[in-house]
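Standup notes, structure subgroup. Blocker cleared on the alpha-D-glucopyranuronic acid input:
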Amino acid sequence: MRLKKMAAAGTAALVAVALTACGGGFEAPAEGSAENTGGAGAPEAETVFKVAFNQNADQPEAVAMTNLGEHLAERTDGRYTLEVFPNETLGAQKDTVELVQAGTVDFALVAGSLLENFNPDFVALNLPYVYDSQEHQEAVLNDPEITGDLYTSIEDQNIRVLGGFSAGTRSVYNSSHPIEKPEDLSGLKIRVMESDTNTRMLELMGGTGTPMGQGEVYTAIQSGVLDGGENNESIYSNLKHDEVAPYYSYTKHLMIPDLLITSPEIFDSMSEEDRAVFLEELQAAFEESSELTATVMTESQAAAEEAGAEFNEPDIAPFREAVKPLLDEKLTTDTAKDLYDKVRAAAE
Ligand code: GCU
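Run returned:
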């Protein structure tokens, strides 16, 4: 839903109505509640696109999207801007994909894994150890020769992918002991993102994968429902998972991209010229976020150590070996295999 600029209270009421109308399982925050304020301040423009984000407003992607909104407003003479709603304010990622499909939310940043539920070929971007480095991943994500067809493949389900951010490297952490080898994960319940691939991956790595939205993880570990999770250093520290799961082991098994999704109808409602400006600024946002990411990860590790977390560097070869069957199990179509080959070729 595109919102014309209006008083905050009116906006909140509209959102609540729209969210109710689309019948999603998500409750809109109460009017006037602290949660109801986007992290990006109050942008001025005729049309304010809402961007759903599940992490805090200081994360590189949120900063870059907020700046994109400002540049967009300037370059479209105030026709468009963006407002980033951080911290799952508009729902967990799974909900926000549905809200984008329904046209209730204009854009969402979601982990690539979630789009496997709409087209399993997305798996080629989300497999363990598929990328050699952040540079490799970024070269793949925004090269139309590699990802162009994939990104438009689910338009019949009202989702268009506009590009992808690198969201760091993920490793496992838990409340019990450092992980040195796959056997050390035996008996541990580790939260994974909501795709079958991730559940199976964790099983192959030696533990048990439990799919869940990011916002519930802290309490689940604290109450013993989970033993840990797997994520980058920034989420680990920012969401204070280090308090309840102080052993962070650098298995470095995943680099999951965060993809920017919208609905074709929303995006194409802009003129061709404005769309071109948006896409140009999006490239700049990718670059800005990329530069911030490395720093944020290093600072987050230091903050977690300060808070008492213990980091260790296991030999990753046995983990890499353990997850190999996932390739055959998941790359089941020619398109997915071809995509995977192109991703790997970009590393060379
Ligand atoms: C990271 C990633 C998100 C993802 C989250 C998660 O924060 O950037 O896209 O949702 O991890 O583990 O759920």
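Discussed briefly. The chain has 15 helices and twelve strands.
Next: hand off to the docking folks.
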